[in-house]
């Protein structure tokens, strides 16, 4: 569990342990979107068990039991991409890692709809077997990867999304660094699942399942701790996951762990630990460094109070605001909406969505707040052209002035 330290919530040391974290319980279930294949719980209400390093011997029937660290795959997805089917089949026979087998099976089925393996089973049957076995052993990365290949669906997904939409939030689906789909109104479970898998599978199959988990947890946290979402109009699921990865990367720097390994730790955490990490990154903690804070707020798309109204005031004094090649023009914007309307806030978010680096987005937000203050204190200033934020940022950087 997360503990409360002198400077705020502190993640337990076991979060960064290289050993598989043990957990118990049952919770959100995954069902197959394609068939009536048997379901198995990947959990949602879990508690950490044991100490870091050298756990006591346990009964395999104990729900806290974990049989150790997941074996590293022999090949990563990029290393087997576009290999011949016969070569993949031979590699599959030799692969001991469950995750490695899933990588190979995914590549084998990517171009063929139906495959019979040398063992006499189909590729889907092998994936289902790995999914079930990994669930028993609590090897969460394999569970999620197999669930994605089987197109599993978390229960109550559509109602959870709807709950956030009716509370005035927008939600985007898609992997960080790739295209996103903006959801602005309730959707049927079938349509929502299609969007999630279409947006996530080509970039990172695990995120097709992880993003479902995050939607469920966000809706749950929203119900009990709505104040954590202040200043967040658009919930970008892929960016929130990136914020969680950044948080673990900071912890890895402290612990001197491998950063690539740390970046994948979110996928290896139990569902309960994923939820606890999500809550942790949503909290505004003073002990974070300036860079970490900017990365976090930028990834969460969090803005300060009255931010949109201040951007509106800038727009009334300039012909427009431009960033990363996208422009929000003064006309007709100020004639169509007021600075207090949600529609204007969404226009600003659409402008900022062109920024692909979280900390840069946050610096731009801070810059807009500064520009607004300057204009408020100097009413005689009028900008007769479009305010190009990238150019202003470049001038600040060249002159050594920090925002």
UniProtKB/TrEMBL annotation:
Q: What membrane topology is annotated for this entry?
A: Lipid-anchor
Residue span(s) of domain Phosphorylase b kinase regulatory subunit alpha/beta C-terminal: 233-393
**Sequence ranges of Acidic residues compositional bias:** 58-73
> Keywords in UniProt for this one?
Calmodulin-binding, Carbohydrate metabolism, Cell membrane, Glycogen metabolism, Lipoprotein, Membrane, Prenylation
The record's subcellular locations are: Cell membrane
Q: In which pathway does it act?
A: Glycan biosynthesis; glycogen metabolism
Give the Gene Ontology MF terms in alphabetical order. calmodulin binding
Q: Matching InterPro entries, A to Z?
A: KPBA/B_C, PHK_A/B_su
**Low complexity bias (residue ranges):** 13-49
Q: Name one GO biological process term.
A: glycogen metabolic process
What Pfam families does this protein map onto? KPBB_C
Signal sequence extent: none
One cellular component GO annotation, for this chain's record?
phosphorylase kinase complex
Q: What is its main location?
A: membrane
Q: Which residue ranges are recorded for the region named Disordered?
A: 1-80
Family under the similarity heading: Belongs to the phosphorylase b kinase regulatory chain family.
Q: What does this protein do?
A: Phosphorylase b kinase catalyzes the phosphorylation of serine in certain substrates, including troponin I.
What is the name listed in the Swiss-Prot or TrEMBL entry for this protein? Phosphorylase b kinase regulatory subunit
Per the UniProt record, the lineage of the source organism begins with: Eukaryota, Metazoa, Porifera, Demospongiae, Heteroscleromorpha
């Amino acid at each position: 569990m997360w503990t409360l330290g002198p400077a705020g919530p502190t993640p337990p040391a076991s979060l960064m342990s290289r050993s598989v974290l043990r957990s118990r319980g049952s919770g959100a279930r995954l069902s197959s979107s394609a068939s009536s294949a048997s379901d198995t719980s990947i959990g949602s209400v879990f508690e950490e068990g044991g100490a870091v390093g050298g756990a006591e011997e346990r009964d395999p029937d104990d729900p806290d039991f974990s049989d150790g660290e997941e074996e590293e795959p022999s090949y990563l997805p990029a290393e087997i991409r576009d290999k011949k089917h016969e070569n993949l089949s031979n590699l599959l026979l030799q692969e001991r890692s469950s995750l490695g087998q899933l990588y190979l099976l995914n590549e084998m089925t990517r171009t063929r709809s139906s495959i019979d393996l040398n063992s006499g089973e189909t590729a889907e049957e092998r994936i289902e077997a790995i999914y079930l076995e990994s669930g028993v052993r609590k090897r969460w990365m394999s569970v999620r990867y197999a669930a994605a290949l089987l197109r599993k669906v978390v229960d109550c997904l559509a109602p959870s999304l709807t709950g956030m939409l009716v509370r005035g939030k927008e939600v985007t689906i898609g992997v960080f660094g790739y295209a996103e789909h903006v959801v602005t109104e309730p959707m049927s479970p079938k349509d929502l699942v299609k969007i999630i898998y279409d947006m996530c599978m080509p970039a990172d199959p695990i995120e097709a399942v992880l993003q479902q988990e995050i939607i469920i947890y966000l809706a749950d946290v929203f119900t009990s701790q709505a104040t954590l979402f202040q200043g967040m109009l658009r919930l970008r699921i892929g960016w929130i996951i990136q914020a969680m990865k950044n948080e673990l990367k900071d912890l890895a720097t402290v612990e001197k762990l491998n950063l690539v390994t740390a970046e994948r730790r979110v996928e290896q955490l139990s569902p309960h630990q994923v939820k606890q990490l999500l809550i942790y990154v949503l909290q505004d903690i003073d002990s974070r460094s300036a860079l970490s804070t900017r990365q976090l707020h930028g990834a969460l798309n969090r803005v300060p109070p009255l931010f949109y109204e201040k951007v509106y005031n800038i727009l009334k004094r300039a012909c427009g605001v431009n960033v990363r090649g996208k422009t929000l023009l003064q006309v007709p914007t100020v004639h169509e909406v007021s600075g207090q309307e949600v529609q204007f806030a969404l226009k600003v978010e659409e402008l900022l969505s062109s920024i692909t680096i979280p900390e840069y987005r946050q610096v731009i937000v801070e810059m807009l707040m500064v520009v607004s203050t300057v204009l408020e204190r100097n009413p005689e200033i009028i900008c007769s052209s479009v305010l190009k934020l990238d150019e202003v940022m470049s001038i600040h950087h060249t002159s050594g002035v920090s925002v």
